[in-house]
Design goal:
By secondary structure, the chain is α/β, with parallel strands linked by helices. It has nine helices and seven strands, in the order E-H-E-H-E-H-E-H-E-H-E-H-H-H-E-H. Helix 5 links the parallel strand 5 and strand 6. 42% of the residues are buried. Bound molecules: nicotinamide-adenine-dinucleotide (NAD).
């Protein structure tokens, strides 16, 4: 028996096989979930997503730009018509203009700020509003965040602000939807090589740095996030809501990352 037997999961954010959403999709599918996929990006992305959907026998693949209320209405209406309910909603979506990642933080433009916050944070509210009526007996909503929401990370700039908003939204949604039995949580993943990550300047350095300094001395993979997403989607997490759960090999607990040699060097000063 699978942990997701009989459950329906609507997943936003599969762009290709490296997407975190694909790692989550595979894990939920393995445990028996019926998967519904929603992507954005026109024909180019459809060509990538359709073969993946076929691989897992997914019969619901729809396009929706999360900036469009009409597109979201249409997708959720189709879900309601064909399935009547969902048990899990996965939000694995983010976007920022390249100009607003890197450079100086003070140079973030008003339009770039609005765009990043709309796609990467507000969309969780827009999706949850539409998902809640499809979860009359409760359910699980989750999104993907990053430690830059809490501590300054080089170049992450406007996306850090979007993630801070996403984490606050997680708590407010948890409170709002909790009485209906809907849990809302976020997974804070360590850096992973994906299409979105490639847009962050210096990501290769960040990957190496995280692997070198995280307590587990390992880099996080899509399937590591998939396992924790499975926990959040399943009844195992029935009393967990409003949380940010780290899947970062422990990186977030580290304060000082100097090696013995560097510490010895600094001890010599003064
Ligand atoms: P990805 O590029 O595979 O996924 C990002 C997804 O967002 C894509 O499927 C893309 O089509 C979608 N998207 C962008 N704009 C959209 C729009 N307007 N409407 C609908 N969908 C849109 O990259 P990923 O790394 O798997 O990112 C998934 C999530 O994980 C993001 O929220 C990202 O910030 C977060 N995250 C990633 C990392 C990492 O290092 N890769 C770490 C922590 C958190």
């Amino acid at each position: 028996m699978g942990l997701m037997d009989g459950k329906i999961a609507l997943i936003f954010g599969v762009a290709n096989k490296n997407s975190i959403a694909w790692g989550i999709t595979q894990r939920l599918k393995e445990e028996g979930a019926t998967i519904l996929l929603c992507y954005a990006g026109g024909d180019a992305l459809r060509k990538r997503v359709l073969p993946l959907a076929e691989e897992i026998g997914c019969e619901f693949v729809e396009e929706a730009d999360v900036q469009s209320d009409e597109a979201l209405d249409a997708v959720f209406a189709k879900v309601a018509e064909r399935y009547g309910r969902i048990d899990t909603l996965v939000h694995s979506v983010a976007f920022a203009n390249r100009d607003d990642l890197g450079g100086r933080f003070v140079d973030i433009s008003r339009d770039g700020f609005k765009l990043a916050l709309d796609i990467s944070a507000y969309s969780l509210i827009a999706m949850s509003k539409r998902a809640a009526p499809l979860m009359p007996e409760g359910g699980s909503i989750m999104s993907m965040t990053y430690y830059a929401a809490e501590k300054v990370m080089p170049k992450y700039h406007v996306m850090a602000i979007a993630k801070a908003a996403l984490e606050a939204i997680t708590k407010y949604l948890a409170n709002d939807l909790g009485p209906q039995g809907i849990r809302v949580n976020a997974i804070s993943a360590g850096p992973i090589k994906t299409l979105a990550a490639a847009g962050v300047p210096g990501i290769r350095m960040m990957l190496k740095y995280a692997e070198r300094n995280a307590p587990l001395r390992a880099s996080v993979k899509q399937e590591d996030v998939g396992d924790v997403a499975l926990f959040l989607a399943s009844d195992l997490s029935r009393m967990v809501t409003g949380e940010v759960i780290y899947v970062d090999a422990g990186y977030h607990v580290i304060g000082l990352t100097l090696g013995e040699d560097e510490m010895a060097e600094l001890n010599k000063v003064d």
